[in-house]
Amino acid sequence: MKKAKRLVAIFSAFVFMLSAFAVSAFAVTVRVGPGWLVDNGGHMDWTGGTRYQADFDFAVRVWNNHRFVIRRVTFWTSADVQVFDWFDDHPRSYTAFVDLTRRLIGNGGINTGRMGFNTFQMDRLSPSPLQRRRMVALHELGHTLGLADNLGIQNVMNPADTTVNVLSPSDRASADAAWQRFR
Ligand SMILES: [Zn+2]
């Protein structure tokens, strides 16, 4: 009897620990924005380019490993977003931005969005500049896919300057919710 009682106590402590872990690790928040640059075919075709192309390409791979089809425009496709760099040395200037202007042209659903990187701020990111540049690219691409800012230090969609380089459960759930709107 005594032994069984102790087993129960140990078991309930274990369950309690599990539930505490569940709250911290799996509290998923879904945040989608009002716009996106994915076309009617489910693609996000980009044109132009950036000094941070390697970081942009990294971010494309991460999102495409989830469920999206982000690809460079070809002769046979139409661009949904123009990628470019600009320079603004104001101390509080944006590091990057996305213009989600979406003008659907014809049956193909062509968007005319823009995605810009401020070379002044991008070149100053530190420490861990590689991780921070990748995070910026992941974040802005997330907006083009229809995700909104999402507080939570583990989220790529957190607007703060972080070094997050993997999609959190909230990022993934938000991406799935966004996908439902234009698939
Ligand atoms: Zn944002």
Describe the structure.
With about 180 residues, the protein is α/β, with parallel strands linked by helices. It has a single domain, classed as Collagenase (Catalytic Domain) (3-Layer(aba) Sandwich). Helices cover about 40% and strands about 15% of the residues. It is built from five helices and five strands, in the order αβαββββααα. It has helices at about 1-25, 55-65, 120, 130-145, 170-180; strands at about 45-50, 70, 80-85, 95-100, 115-120. It has a five-stranded mixed sheet. Strand 1, helix 2 and strand 2 (about 70) form a beta-alpha-beta unit. Helix 2 packs across helix 4. The termini are far apart. Bound molecules: zinc ion. Zinc ion binds near residues 139, 143, 149 and 159.
**Can you write the helix and strand succession as a string?**
HEHEEEEHHH
List the ions, cofactors and other small molecules found in this model. Answer: zinc ion
What strand line-up does the widest sheet have? 2-1-3-5-4
Can you tell me the CATH topology? Collagenase (Catalytic Domain)
Outline: globular
Overall strand count: 5
What is the second-level CATH architecture? 3-Layer(aba) Sandwich
User: How many domains would you count in the coordinates?
Assistant: 1
Beta-strand percentage range: 5-15%
Average pLDDT rating: 86
Rg (C-alpha, Å): 20 Å
N- to C-terminal distance: 59 Å
Relevant CATH superfamily: Collagenase (Catalytic Domain)
The residue ranges in which pLDDT falls below 50 over 5 or more consecutive positions are 4-12, 14-23
